[in-house]
Amino acid sequence: MKILYDHQAFGMQQFGGVSNCFVQLIKNLPQNCQHYISLCESDNVHLIESGLNVSFKPRKLYEENFISNRKFKGRGFLYRCTLRLTPWLTSEGINRKCSIEALKRGNFDVFHPTYFHPYFLKYLNGKPFILTVHDMIPELFSFKRDNQIKWKKLLCNKAAHIVAVSENTKQDLIKILNVPNEKVTVIYHGAPEYPNNIDSPPIINGKYILYVGQRELYKNFLSMVKALTPVLQRHQYLKIVCTGAELTRRETSALFAMGMTDRVQHLRVSDDRLIMNLYSHALCFIYPSAYEGFGIPILEAYKAYCPVLLNNKSCFPEIANDAAIYFNLDDNHSDLESVMESFLRISSEERLSLLDKQRQRLSLFSWQRSASQLADIYRLASQNCTPILTH
């Protein structure tokens, strides 16, 4: 059975959850699944380090460095005009041409796009395609200018089958886009494979609460800091370490107003070993987001034997079950301060019990198992059968 994947996620992301998910699934597909990724240019770290037999050159021109690395009004519009009028000047245009040529050759049984642009529909020539939906964030948080919303709706209607990364995401698909229950199968992400780095020297001195990833809007980063400010004022030895993009002016101003400028340390980290080092030596990992499709950082923290504190929202209880400490944080209510104070007082026995639950929970998530489930969906779609709903 031959599976064709396109360029989209690998052209958009240098590193990130969507592209990493596809890399891990492709790496772990059963031997009876032959894969081909249609790609000409990319700097995707996950793909480069994967060992997969994919031929591509370093990425050239894309929106993040179009004309200038600095953001300016109209840059996105100029890029889209360039992509439409002279696509051969952009990596997206070059990669899309590569994918269209692969589709036209037709040497595949099932097509699996890695994002939601519907360019491929007129080139399928009757072949089925499988769609993965990682979350419903644009729809739930009214990102009205996000093309993903209209593209996703179109593709969900036309896909042979849909993969959701959690039951929570599946239910959102059903409620928001009226997708039939039998058309969606939940396939969880797998556990990270890299070493936990618990024995490596810490790159951050002192005791810290770890926050990983993006921080905007529904991520609740500033709300979390505000809720924890009294805790940090009482415990002067403690700080918050966050990763991701540089702090924005708004964030810097908000931290200054809260008196937390010196208590929040930012690190720009992309290397997996350094990220696992941060988890391994953190007092705890905190995930205050109001919504996630799955929450890979939960498994990363489990892998590093790092206690996990989660906002009691979205898919978090589904993924972590009882292997986490939960708090409530939203616009109307927060008990994070009291929950954190309780966590700081837990005994060694309670901490070890939590870590043991996390270790057991981690064992349920496997990329090999997930890839096997995906291969079953490919097989049934290629035979024009309805996939069996499994977890």
Plain-language structure description:
- This protein is α/β, with parallel strands linked by helices.
- The protein has 2 domains: 2-190 and 366-382, Rossmann fold (3-Layer(aba) Sandwich); 207-362, 3-Layer(aba) Sandwich (Rossmann fold), CATH 3.40.50.2000.
- The chain is 41% helix and 12% strand.
- It contains 16 helices and 12 strands.
- It has helices at 8-12, 17-27, 45-48, 75-85, 91-105, 137-140, 148-158, 167-177, 221-234, 249-258, 272-281, 296-303, 316-320, 336-344, 348-362, 367-382, and strands at 2-5, 34-37, 110-112, 130-133, 161-164, 184-186, 207-211, 238-242, 264-266, 284-287, 308-311, 325-327.
- The strands form 3 sheets. A 6-stranded parallel β-sheet has the order 9-8-7-10-11-12, sandwiched between helices.
- β8, α10 (249-258) and β9 (264-266) form a beta-alpha-beta unit.
- α2 packs across α16 (367-382).
- The longest helix has 16 residues, at 367-382.
- The radius of gyration is 22 Å and the shape is globular.
- The two termini are 22 Å apart.
